[in-house]
Design brief:
- The structure is a single chain.
- By secondary structure, the protein is α/β, with parallel strands linked by helices.
- The protein has eleven helices and six strands.
- The protein is 53% helix and 14% strand.
């Protein structure tokens, strides 16, 4: 990774730059790599991610680190720009392929968007906090409030997103570290295994949700360690 100009970190659905920074900046600092954590534009999430990647890569090749939806965008961009990509950390991939009828992340995003439009932000935040671990509830409360009133549109965009196909994953030329939480029902462990099996130069690292909640930096530390061994 010494050839990397820097690292671009992409948050997951409904998340924000703060969480992406906490997930990846400590590993970048340890490796003396500059990191840009992207704040999603809730009116055009994927477009804002791709614009940030293009801007960063204009100065030289980059490492792309993404969580969930951010991991999918990272993979797609890396497939299109292998000459500008040193490696990818794909954390918590949610699905494979465009048929997302059974994709937990897509279903969750769509359902939350519908609830927000029907009941408003405060009511949905209260329900989310009652059913989520404290670390996740705090992170989503902050990011959801910052993206309101455009949050429903952002979640609907995520719900409609077509995840990378098997053929696309098989064309990735750069090293990829897949980090998966083995007990995460929204980002199935089997999907991470599938990505790792399909991507030619890949390594998979397993964590738990408790470890992620205790320190989000585990995503970066494990992911970058895996890339360093590639």
């Amino acid at each position: 990774m010494s050839a990397a100009h820097g690292v671009v970190a992409l948050p997951g659905t409904g998340s924000d730059a703060d969480f992406a920074r906490r997930a990846f900046a400590p590993a970048c600092v340890a490796r003396r790599l500059d990191v840009v954590a992207v704040e999603p534009d809730p009116r055009a999430v994927v477009a804002s991610y791709r614009a940030a990647l293009d801007a960063a890569a204009a100065a030289g090749p980059i490492v792309v680190a993404g969580i969930s939806l951010g991991a999918a965008v990272a993979i797609e961009w890396a497939a299109e720009h292998p000459e500008l990509t040193v490696g990818v950390v794909a954390a918590l991939p949610g699905w494979t392929g465009p048929d997302t009828a059974a994709c937990p992340a897509s279903l969750s995003a769509g359902a939350t968007a519908a609830q927000l439009r029907a009941d408003g932000l405060d009511a949905v935040v209260a329900r989310m906090r009652a059913s989520s671990p404290r670390w996740l509830a705090d992170a989503l409360t902050r990011s959801w409030r910052s993206q309101w009133p455009n949050l429903p549109a952002a979640l609907e965009e995520a719900a409609d997103y077509k995840w990378p196909e098997t053929e696309r994953l098989g064309t990735i030329e750069v090293p990829v570290a897949v980090v998966t939480a083995v007990d995460d029902p929204v980002h199935p462990f089997a999907i991470a295994e599938e990505w790792a099996a399909l991507i030619p130069r890949s390594a998979i690292h397993r964590i738990t949700l408790a470890e992620l909640g205790a320190d989000p930096a585990i995503l970066g530390h494990t992911g970058f360690a895996a890339l360093a061994r590639s």
